[in-house]
Write a structure and sequence with these properties.
The structure holds two protein chains of two kinds.
Chain A: H1 8-46, H2 76-109, H3 115-129, H4 132-146, E1 154-156, E2 159-162, E3 165-168, E4 176-178, E5 181-183, E6 186-188, H5 190-216, H6 220-228, H7 233-263, H8 267-270, H9 275-287, H10 290-323
Antiparallel strand pairs in A: 1-2, 2-3, 3-6, 4-5
Helix pairs in contact in A: 2-3, 2-5, 2-9, 3-5, 4-5, 5-7, 6-7, 7-10, 9-10
Chain B: H1 23-31, H2 35-61, H3 81-86, H4 88-93, H5 102-120, H6 127-146, H7 161-187, H8 192-207, H9 210-224, H10 233-259, H11 262-270, H12 275-305, H13 317-326, H14 334-365
Classes of the chains: A alpha+beta, B mainly alpha.
């Protein structure tokens, strides 16, 4: 648009827009001001302090699974870090497993008409249309119900499997039953198993369709040309189809990974100690500082989403550089 | 002179050629297209048959169909459909008073009839009529269900089950779709303030999980309201749900608006249409018809997302199942809860699959 000097004619025809925008800003500003005033009044009435000072006070609770050392005497900040690491762990596990499943199912749907194609089609339709929360709860209920109690733990290798989780030996530290609990080794919570299974299967159904669309977007002539120079089968798929298919599939797959990251918040429904459960649940209720806690939750998830978007954009740029167009 | 031959009678019709494939050949091609796929097919078939047989055994052969408490489903050998059948009222309407059941049942009936009318696509089911129906229905349902005046009041905390799912879904359509359209138009506005506000809202909602938005509505929002204005959990949750999905719809509509070429707007200006008239008469009809399948996909996502309401304490279908499995009558075997989940999964699968087929039909018909 050509920039015009602020002449009288420009002012005459544009002032309604500026008035409306000023009014809009005034309304939003007034609402924000009333919100802050109410918030401060309510906090005073409840006797709750404000600010992030609580992060350095003792947490006073235990986290069932923590990748960093954490105990009841650790500060809340450590709890936030442990929760964030747990979230990243479940996103990574579910992402990898989901992508592998999706690749298998996508190629299955592209095979000649037969049982494999029909079964993969049924897989996609079934797991896309059942809510993800229901799938996660189903796996959780099955895991809890089917696994034996601590006293009757299944033993194989040095590992123990019971309804408290899967306990793997760590170096010389073999897990063993002590009273009602298991000590030693690394614990893989049933909540983590249920969350990973539910998230990966649900997202694999969507990712399979995205990958299939990507593969179908590669013109048939490419494969025919590859065959004519002697490239067939898996080599042709890797060298000719896959790079061009990724160009179409990567942005959509990146969006699906972001959906995966946001769905990991459903850990709060099964009690897996992730950001939603620890920061949005335990910390918010224990300190009564809901604003700071939910603010942290929003910031952390926004940061994770931005991280995934940045990683996908990086690979996208590299792909566009070599594939051109 | 060359000889010319003319037939005097028609040629007898020839028998159709024999089918290219022998009868067994078609089955062989379907089962074993290539050796590699053939091996996988046979293995897959074996796994599916075994799993299918076990599921059939669990769901039909050893299942319990009658009974009114967990005593009817001892052990964990079979599905507990008695749980599903005996608690039909909580599934459908939650704690709605039994003598006022005609109100939610009327709402269900109206919804089913409206949807049947839309799907058959008679001549009068234009897009505008459908949209008007989707906006009028939740308003009417709210008035009937809440009551007041001649009808006894039934507060939303007593609603539950399918009623809550239906009301929240319809309320979301009615508010999120128009609001999403406004947000999408706002993001394309010439006014920087409007563009900034709409863009910030949409991007903020897209960066955050829906569960976090619901948690904020449940725990944080009351702190920002004046002390004497208390909005119930149901209203807050439904509002947060609608705002979140409005942001999702805004992105879909933005795509549709971008799909309308610049030439359309330029041509509209040429014939003398102002901004708003061009929008109403030229841009919107094209944009809206372009995004109808994507909007149906949003509807499917909304239906699935209503399950999240059970996490913050608003009892929808999933919440009704969980409450039921913990009630004194039914607490006990884990089989009972699993049967409830399987029933719910089949129900959602049916509804969402039907909607996705409808969406594909719309896409093909365009």
């Amino acid at each position: 648009m050509v920039r015009r000097r602020l002449s009288r004619t420009v002012l005459a025809e544009r002032w309604p827009g500026w008035v409306v925008q000023a009014l809009l800003l005034a309304v939003v500003g007034w609402l924000a001001y009333r919100g802050v005033v109410n918030f401060q009044a309510n906090l005073r009435a409840l006797g709750v302090s404000a600010g992030f000072g609580f992060l350095h006070t003792q947490a006073g609770f235990q986290i069932a699974q923590s990748l960093i050392p954490f105990g009841p005497a650790s500060p809340y900040l450590d709890a936030v870090v442990a929760a964030a690491l747990n979230t990243l762990l479940v996103i990574a596990l579910a992402g990898v497993l989901g992508t592998l499943l999706a690749l298998v199912v996508a190629f299955g749907r592209l095979s000649p008409p037969g049982i494999v194609r029909a079964a993969c089609g049924a897989y996609v339709e079934t797991f896309r249309n059942i809510p993800v929360l229901l799938q996660i709860l189903f796996w959780y209920a099955s895991a809890i119900a089917l696994l034996p109690g601590v006293a009757d733990s299944l033993q194989f290798g040095g590992a123990l499997l019971n309804n408290r989780g899967l306990f793997l030996p760590l170096g010389g530290d073999r897990p063993h039953v002590e009273g009602f609990d298991v000590s030693g080794g690394i614990a893989i919570l049933p909540e983590l198993i249920a969350l990973t299974l539910g998230l990966s299967i649900y997202n694999s159904a969507f990712l399979a369709e995205i990958f299939r669309a990507g593969i179908l977007s590669v013109p048939r002539g490419q494969i025919e040309a590859a065959t004519s120079v002697g490239l067939t089968g898996v080599r042709a798929a890797l060298l000719v189809t896959l790079p061009q298919a990724l160009r179409v599939a990567l942005p959509a797959a990146g969006g699906q990974y972001q959906i995966l990251a946001k769905s990991s918040a459903l850990a709060a429904a099964v009690g897996y100690p992730d950001i939603m459960q620890i920061v949005g649940g335990t910390i918010a209720s224990q300190t009564s500082q809901a604003l700071e806690a939910m603010g942290l939750v929003v910031l952390l998830y926004a940061a994770i989403n931005l991280g995934i978007a940045a990683i996908v954009a990086f690979f996208n740029r590299r792909l566009l550089r070599t594939e051109g167009r | 002179m060359t000889a010319v031959f003319v037939r005097e009678s028609p040629v007898a019709p020839r028998v159709a050629p024999a089918r290219a494939l022998a009868p067994g050949e078609r089955l062989r091609r379907w089962l074993l297209p290539t050796p590699a796929i053939g091996v996988v097919s046979v293995l897959l078939l074996a796994v599916l048959l075994v799993t299918g047989a076990r599921f059939f055994d669990w769901a039909i052969v050893q299942a319990h169909w009658r009974g009114a408490s967990s005593a009817a489903c001892p052990g964990d050998g079979g599905a507990c459909w008695s749980f599903v059948v005996a608690r039909w009222k909580p599934w459908l309407v939650g704690n709605y008073p039994s003598d006022q059941l005609w109100r939610p049942l009327t709402c269900f009936a109206v919804f089913v009839l409206f949807w049947a009318w839309v799907v058959r696509r008679p001549h009068r089911a234009s897009l505008l009529r459908v949209l008007q129906g989707f906006i009028a229905m939740p308003v009417a349902f709210f008035l009937i269900l809440i009551g007041g005046g001649p009808l006894p009041v039934v507060v939303p905390t007593q609603w539950g089950g399918l009623l809550v799912t239906l009301v929240v879904t319809l309320a979301t359509f009615a508010t999120a779709l128009p609001l999403g359209l406004c947000l999408a138009l706002g993001r394309r506005s010439h006014w920087p303030v409007v563009r900034l506000l709409c863009g910030t809202f949409v991007e903020a909602m897209r960066a955050v999980p829906l569960l976090a938005v619901l948690f904020i509505a449940a725990t944080l929002l009351p702190l920002f309201l004046p002390r004497d204005l208390a909005i119930g959990l149901f209203a807050r949750a439904a509002t947060a749900f609608a705002l979140f999905n409005a942001a999702m719809a805004a992105e879909v509509f933005r795509g549709g608006l971008q799909a309308v070429g610049r030439g359309q707007i330029e041509a509209a200006t040429t014939v003398g249409l102002g901004d708003f008239a061009a929008l109403r008469l030229v841009v919107l009809p094209q944009a809206l018809t372009a995004v109808v399948p994507a909007v149906v996909n949003i509807m499917i996502a909304v239906i699935k997302e209503t399950t999240l309401l059970s996490v913050i304490g608003v009892s929808d279908l999933l919440g009704a199942i969980e409450i039921g499995a913990k009630s004194p009558d039914w607490v006990g075997e884990p089989n009972i809860l699993t049967s409830g989940y399987v029933f719910l999964a089949l129900a959602y699968l049916g509804v969402c699959y039907a909607l996705s087929r409808y969406s594909r039909r719309l896409e093909r018909a365009r």
